[in-house]
Amino acid sequence: MSKLTDLPKRILIGRALRSDRLGETLLPKRIALPVFASDPLSSVAYAPGEVLIVLSIAGLSAYHFSPWIALAVVILMFTVVASYRQNVRAYPSGGGDYEVATTNLGPRAGLTVASALLVDYVLTVAVSVSAGVENLGSAISFVVEHKTLCAIGAIVLLALMNLRGVRESGKLFAIPTYLFVAGVFLMLLWGGFRGLVLGDTMHAPTSGFDIKPEHPGLAGFALVFLLLRAFSSGCAALTGVEAISNGVPAFRKPKSRNAATTLALMGLLAVTMFCGIIALAMATGVKMAENPATDLIRDGVPVGDGYTQHPVIAQVAEAVFGPGSFLFVLLAVATALVLFLAANTAYNGFPLLGSILAQDRYLPRQLHTRGDRLAFSNGIVLLAGAAILLVWIYGADTTRLIQLYIVGVFVSFTLSQTGMVRHWNRLLAGERDRARRRHMIRSRAINAFGAFFTGLVLVVVLATKFSHGAWVALLGMVIFYGTMTAIRKHYDRVAEEIAADDASPDDSVRPSRVHAIVLVSKLHRPTLRALAYARLIRADQLEALSISVDQAETKALREEWERRGINVPLKILDSPYREVTRPVIEYVKGLRRQSPRDVISVYIPEYVVGHWYEHLLHNQSALRLKGRLLFTPGVMVTSVPYQLQSSEAAKQRARRRAEWSAPGSVRRGPVERRQKEPSRKG
Amino acid sequence: MSKLTDLPKRILIGRALRSDRLGETLLPKRIALPVFASDPLSSVAYAPGEVLIVLSIAGLSAYHFSPWIALAVVILMFTVVASYRQNVRAYPSGGGDYEVATTNLGPRAGLTVASALLVDYVLTVAVSVSAGVENLGSAISFVVEHKTLCAIGAIVLLALMNLRGVRESGKLFAIPTYLFVAGVFLMLLWGGFRGLVLGDTMHAPTSGFDIKPEHPGLAGFALVFLLLRAFSSGCAALTGVEAISNGVPAFRKPKSRNAATTLALMGLLAVTMFCGIIALAMATGVKMAENPATDLIRDGVPVGDGYTQHPVIAQVAEAVFGPGSFLFVLLAVATALVLFLAANTAYNGFPLLGSILAQDRYLPRQLHTRGDRLAFSNGIVLLAGAAILLVWIYGADTTRLIQLYIVGVFVSFTLSQTGMVRHWNRLLAGERDRARRRHMIRSRAINAFGAFFTGLVLVVVLATKFSHGAWVALLGMVIFYGTMTAIRKHYDRVAEEIAADDASPDDSVRPSRVHAIVLVSKLHRPTLRALAYARLIRADQLEALSISVDQAETKALREEWERRGINVPLKILDSPYREVTRPVIEYVKGLRRQSPRDVISVYIPEYVVGHWYEHLLHNQSALRLKGRLLFTPGVMVTSVPYQLQSSEAAKQRARRRAEWSAPGSVRRGPVERRQKEPSRKG
């Protein structure tokens, strides 16, 4: 049975891996870069297009603003990278923005950051997968024709892979990421060479199109607002930069320095690719519109519903490498792969953040265990479910999903940088060494500028995108924040209630005697075992209790009891309605009333079976009785398990489950490191 | 909190009633009749129409066969009633067909009857509610325009009422049933008076219509087949006759005799109404067609999709009382009410049959408890779900649903009557008294004729309706049969496995010592209580065990332990991955390996909370640990509950739940009666 049902599961979820086989190796920079950079680098696959789409609202003439917007994004990228280089030096423990905000700005700010990041993980999955499907669709038309379906399929596939607990390796990340980076640079270089040296004129497939502006002749404040909106969309290129600050422990020594270098390298790569793609898009005459069917004009008429607007990167590649060429297809596939990889990072980050939040009791405590399969599974299923919902609602349309994105990242950026300013202020107050002080003041200036600039961008993003969808992201944040606050409050209330009083070390009435009761339905092995165990306990009083629901059976039980000569008194209670729970509860309550200082110890023989459906057939009365007994004060309930043969199956299932390895372990680093870090700094 | 959430629930589900407030009064015949007869009497609201619809396939000329079909139904009804009068005399315990078949024909026949009845309960709900909606729709057009929706709404409403545990009273059944019977008889008498005495010609709304036969000029075997099909549809009038045999204990003394008289009265009423309605339908020129839109011809053209075909009883009432008249509306409402009441009987019967099957271990044992709320809830939800599915698939169309109906009833009739023949044979073998023998031989003849006739009808029903939908009902029966057989096999296998061996009264190695372990996470009241209780137990060895997931917390625990001077050794296990379960399991296994004759007793402090969502926040690690420990041999697990303040809410909820009264109690009779009956006769 178990063999048969295991086969499809093993195919889908895979053979579990032992967690102690986890690679405890640290990452060199050349591997760390792709591990952490797939998210920010992959966003150059859609960010340039989103900038052009927003500009197209004001018509083709607005396209000449694109270099300026690219410049603004570059400045912002440098600011953010410079800021986070300070973070990784100051907080090498891998706590990330949540830790920085909590330590320096208090738990509310920390919780805000956490909520923002949780929402952002969901959007990373939705946006990256949608963009991946669109990029893949530029080479394989089937994919783009069934966009929503393919996107949901990819999300489910990623979820299954992560539920499986894939054995991660740096190579897994390195190959597609380097392939993508190499492909883009090859495209930029070859395109530049053809255009500047050979003097070729390259034509994107949309170069002959015209754009019907939705708001022609936009000027003044309206134009500024539109440019700001285009800039906000371009800021999508910055998502994921903060990920490295969670992963410092995974780097080789000197950890902080290597992390900072990798961060700088990543920023440099990202801006080069971002600007290069925009430049080539201008040179090859790429046209993008928000509503391509009506606003893209070919030969004087709108292109209509049949037209598929391909991503900028695909159009540029087509112009540079030629339509359908090997390099074009390769780049499309590499782009899609790196985007799916970016989505995968969210699958790693979401449950990890959950476990850190659980440590601070903002989420159920059991999520705290590192790599606990159940916690990870719940997190992965929740993340995939939310992402599927978004993809389904927004039809896997990157342009519409991007409106919700970024809000979370910039909330997190701003609070983290503000926290860093406080961090330096605190350190400066206690530091006397001049060289160190100078260094700190410099760092503080960088973080202060970072906080200011990212805060400004946050305001811009909120102002320009609120009604376009950012409110959804904010609503998500509020829901996460509210839930986590409520959970924390509950834990605090309970902790107060159960705190041990110093004056009276024990609880209320001190118990004096134990009255043990063994529940008996029939005289079979489980009952005999329960009786044997209960007898070992040497309670002050021991009796067997049976509920009579059938007079013939009760008579048989009594006879068997005497025949076997069991020297435990057998008490039988009548139950006209064939109920089991109520007579027992009332009997126990009666005993407690007679002698309130007695503790009642109830022994329940329990069947251990291997399958959930078998469980439905056994123990149900016992379970319900147990549930009620727990509410009766002065009672303890002991299960005496009897393992049926079928329980072997469940045992083996549990063993396999224990051998599972949690996803995201490569970027988290070895476990000993994280152990040393105290749970809360505040 | 509990007050607020209770309000909507109380409105929907109602305030629970104490089960000891159940009317223990026995039913006089005038109340017993409506209690048991709503199902068979209500079927005259649709059975005549179904006969006409089948006949219409051969064209209007085939209508003249309708009196002959009515005659056949009448003979069948008398046969069945006469047969069941023997049943109620021979088996006054209320076990019904299941008991008769199991006792006389063996468990397989019994299980077949049970499967058939379970399927039939589902169809009773689906058919009665659909017919009720159609009848109500003849007066209120909104209802028939939203037929499926209204039918599903009615099913859900009935389910809620039954989940609520309505306090039943005979009056509840008596008023609509007598109203309906009175209405129909008034219609028959007034119609007869107008037609025969006043010489009025009454016109049904369809009297001027013509019918386009689907198979014109049907003759020979095909015609016979069609007539048999019409007869099968008319047999719907017989469903529910067997219900009285389950309810004998609810009658006043002499129970069997009163039940038999009520049965005869019910049969007489049913056939009179059935024949009267068919006669009036002929007299007023009612036309019914299977596909009214195309086959009903008005002024030479089909009536089209906009036409609603009203039930025969409504058309006759319109002709006799006049369209829209008070009596017409009253009868429509009474008909709908009595049909909903008929559906309600299935809600009572389904879980009751389930509890009898659970007693014989064909269903999970916990369903055995009489009036157990959980068992009833599961049964009601399953029944309503299946009925909704059918109503939804078949668009609440009585004509299509009726094709699935009856199969179950006639399987049950045939097996029950065959069983009765065996019963008399057995009794006759041991009986010497001549008068009694003569009586038995007479009864046997009646039952033998009943078995033959109902068996014949079963064959006819299967032959004529199999491809029209009866296969669905058969499939349902097979599924029920298979599931119940599998459950019984499982129980038998387990019973064999756990049977106590006579040679060695105890299990394998006799345990000698107890090693008690108290699990400790922090030193709070729940832990202190668990320590206090465990100390009372006087185990051979007692230690406290804590898993170190955070070094700072562990240090604090150790200090607190010493400060309080707790004289129990504290053992601390390291867990680098912050796991709790695995280190404990491995420690316990190690102890068992060292001394295999020790029993390990693990004490787990457990938090008792009031709400399910609070439960998610606590005890999860404990629960999982407990789940794993159960698979470890030689271990017993003791929960030491600590009742948090919020647990009060759950306690009160449990109390309210205990005060619930099960539906269907009126027809089941008082509990003492059923207790005396042995569970199985075989």
Automatic annotation (TrEMBL), chains A, B:
<dbReference type="GO" id="GO:0003677">
    <property type="term" value="F:DNA binding"/>
</dbReference>
<dbReference type="GO" id="GO:0016020">
    <property type="term" value="C:membrane"/>
</dbReference>
<dbReference type="GO" id="GO:0022857">
    <property type="term" value="F:transmembrane transporter activity"/>
</dbReference>
<feature type="compositionally biased region" description="Basic and acidic residues">
    <location>
        <begin position="669"/>
        <end position="682"/>
    </location>
</feature>
<feature type="transmembrane region" description="Helical">
    <location>
        <begin position="469"/>
        <end position="487"/>
    </location>
</feature>
<protein>
    <submittedName>
        <fullName>DNA-binding protein</fullName>
    </submittedName>
</protein>
<dbReference type="Pfam" id="PF13520">
    <property type="entry name" value="AA_permease_2"/>
</dbReference>
<feature type="transmembrane region" description="Helical">
    <location>
        <begin position="401"/>
        <end position="424"/>
    </location>
</feature>
<dbReference type="InterPro" id="IPR053153">
    <property type="entry name" value="APC_K+_Transporter"/>
</dbReference>
<feature type="transmembrane region" description="Helical">
    <location>
        <begin position="445"/>
        <end position="463"/>
    </location>
</feature>
<feature type="transmembrane region" description="Helical">
    <location>
        <begin position="111"/>
        <end position="133"/>
    </location>
</feature>
<dbReference type="InterPro" id="IPR002293">
    <property type="entry name" value="AA/rel_permease1"/>
</dbReference>
<feature type="transmembrane region" description="Helical">
    <location>
        <begin position="139"/>
        <end position="160"/>
    </location>
</feature>
<keyword id="KW-0472">Membrane</keyword>
<feature type="transmembrane region" description="Helical">
    <location>
        <begin position="65"/>
        <end position="84"/>
    </location>
</feature>
<feature type="transmembrane region" description="Helical">
    <location>
        <begin position="172"/>
        <end position="193"/>
    </location>
</feature>
<keyword id="KW-0238">DNA-binding</keyword>
<feature type="region of interest" description="Disordered">
    <location>
        <begin position="653"/>
        <end position="682"/>
    </location>
</feature>
<keyword id="KW-1133">Transmembrane helix</keyword>
<feature type="transmembrane region" description="Helical">
    <location>
        <begin position="374"/>
        <end position="395"/>
    </location>
</feature>
<feature type="transmembrane region" description="Helical">
    <location>
        <begin position="218"/>
        <end position="241"/>
    </location>
</feature>
<feature type="transmembrane region" description="Helical">
    <location>
        <begin position="262"/>
        <end position="283"/>
    </location>
</feature>
<feature type="transmembrane region" description="Helical">
    <location>
        <begin position="326"/>
        <end position="353"/>
    </location>
</feature>
<keyword id="KW-0812">Transmembrane</keyword>
